[in-house]
Design a protein that fits this description.
The complex is a heterodimer of chains A (about 120) and B (about 120).
Chain A lengths: L4 E3 L2 E4 L5 E6 L6 E8 L3 E9 L2 E4 L8 E7 L2 E6 L8 E8 L9 E2 L3 E5 L1
Parallel strand pairs in A: 2-11
Antiparallel strand pairs in A: 1-3, 3-8, 4-5, 4-9, 5-6, 7-8, 9-10, 9-11
Chain B lengths: L2 E3 L4 E5 L4 E3 L2 E3 L5 E8 L6 E7 L6 E3 L2 E6 L4 E6 L8 E9 L8 E2 L3 E6 L1
Parallel strand pairs in B: 2-12
Antiparallel strand pairs in B: 1-4, 3-9, 5-6, 5-10, 7-8, 8-9, 10-11, 10-12
Classes of the chains: A mainly beta (about 120), B mainly beta (about 120).
């Protein structure tokens, strides 16, 4: 299995530009998560989906952030317009949801720098 | 609310030393799950272990061992005979009963440096 695939790995953009991060979860996994990692706030959950449906988006910072999962094999996290404080590493993770604890498998992350 | 505290921000040891990473958690759930993840310098997050709240048996996997104590709400991680390749940031995480393990609350992480 190729694991969770994220693109781009690195993105440098200017304030005000639109940023789209992409994620391909592990085949067969039915839950997908977007996390953000910063020095100040650590790892924080932005949003997660079960069976392509957003379940909890309470971690999404503001309306500039949006996430979609049009099918079981693809998700996007969009920031429009981007701001310097959005600079962070964005991780996508997937799991197979069942009763009990799910082990999340993380992608390599997308490092975003907003100038 | 759930909370995970890793009081040790940074630890530095010399190779072959044993090292323990502390994790203290808070939750009101009676059923919950605890995790440890490793983040090496390359940046990815690697799963190490999952533990259910109703299973207090300690676990050993090679040089790694975990001590789960509900009485003190702790889930500590020990590396025996540390190696340079163990250098990484280690995260303890918690998920609650209602989300069946879906939503992980992470601690702040402990940066472990193993010097040759």
């Amino acid at each position: 299995d190729a694991g969770v695939i994220q693109s781009p790995r690195h993105e440098v953009t200017e304030m005000g530009q639109e940023v789209t991060l992409r994620c391909k979860p592990i085949s067969g996994h039915n839950s997908l998560f977007w996390y953000r990692q910063t020095m100040m706030r650590g790892l924080e959950l932005l949003i997660y989906f079960n069976n392509n449906v957003p379940i909890d988006d309470s971690g999404m910072p503001e309306d500039r952030f949006s996430a979609k999962m049009p099918n079981a094999s693809f998700s996007t996290l969009k920031i429009q317009p981007s701001e310097p404080r959005d600079s962070a590493v964005y991780f996508c993770a997937s799991s197979y949801r069942r009763s009990g604890a799910n082990v999340l498998t993380f992608g390599a992350g997308s490092r975003l720098t907003v100038l | 609310a759930q909370k995970v505290t890793q009081a040790q921000t940074e630890i530095s040891v010399v190779e072959k030393e044993d090292v323990t990473l502390d994790c203290v958690y808070e939750t009101r759930d009676t059923t919950y799950y605890l995790f440890w993840y490793k983040q090496p310098p390359s940046g990815e997050l690697v799963f190490l272990i999952r533990r259910n709240s109703f299973d207090e048996q300690n676990e050993i996997s090679g040089r790694y061992s975990w001590n789960f104590q509900k009485s003190t709400s702790s889930f500590n991680f020990t590396i025996t005979a540390s190696q340079v390749v163990d250098s990484a940031v280690y995260f303890c995480a918690l998920s609650g009963e209602e989300t069946s393990g879906s939503r992980l609350t992470f601690g702040e992480g402990t940066q472990l440096t193993v010097n040759p």
